[in-house]
Amino acid sequence: MSVWLDRLSAEVRQRRVVSLDRPFVVGLAGGVASGKSTIAKALASRLRKDGLTVEVVGTDGFLFPNAELDRRGLMDRKGFPESHDAGRLTGFLEQLTSGASPLRVPTYSHETYDVGAERSFARPDVVLIEGLIALQAGVEPVDLGLFLDVDEDDLITWYIERFMDLERWDAPRLADRLAEVGGDPEALAGDIWDRINGPNLNDHILPTRSRADLVLHKDERHAIRLLAPASKPA
């Protein structure tokens, strides 16, 4: 793990302008269950060892709450760009750009599958924004863009494993869907991938790979096996 972390840490230190009157922003995108949060935590820890103050911000926190998604008819589009509160995200990015302190961000719980309370923190040297929409157009500024690239078959396997570990099929809104797939939770997870996560990956997430400065390729053993430059548009 240390080789790619050393490389990313060096990239941040080389690109970061100390006189910049706002945090240096790293954007990390990738598909559902690709391990974005784990990568972000590892990179944050490495940068802190270099003496930088770092905060990790998940874009999941900027999803509309479940009640609002229900009201808008977007529960089956959760994770798609339109399921995020663009106004709230823009407000945070404006504060970030202005160099404001403290900064306030919403949180998200994978246990409750919903948006949680806000948290605040003093302006750090680096803000690491990770999530499905971290490299979408409009998420600015991003000083270093990273994309976590994983084969979709592996993503499906890891998503189903996480779905089972969290016993997510117990969510009240999934009861009818579970019955439709014969009461099989793994089949339900596969159905959710086919209807929601897969289309979002291919239609909205993978296209942002071209906006990354660096691509992290992750194999079926969760190992980062290659770190290569992305092909950015001219």
Written overview of the protein:
The protein has 234 residues and is of the alpha/beta class. The protein has helices at 2-15, 36-49, 66-72, 86-98, 152-165, 175-180, 185-205; strands spanning 24-30, 54-58, 103-109, 114-121, 126-130, 144-150, 214-218, 224-229. A six-stranded mixed β-sheet has the order 2-5-1-6-7-8. A hairpin with a 5-residue loop joins strand 7 (214-218) and strand 8. Helix 5 (152-165) crosses helix 7. The longest helix has 21 residues, at 185-205.
Indicate the structural class. alpha/beta
Helix content: 25-40%
Helix tally equals 7
Q: Tally of extended strands?
A: 8
Largest beta-sheet characterization = 6 strands, mixed
- The topology string of helices and strands comes to HEHEHHEEEEHHHEE
The radius of gyration is 18 Å
Strand portion, in percent? 15-25%
Query: Whole-Å distance between the termini?
Result: 32 Å
User: Uncertain segments of ≥5 residues (pLDDT<50)?
Assistant: none
The dominant shape is globular
What is the strand arrangement across the widest sheet?
2-5-1-6-7-8
- In round numbers, the mean pLDDT is 92
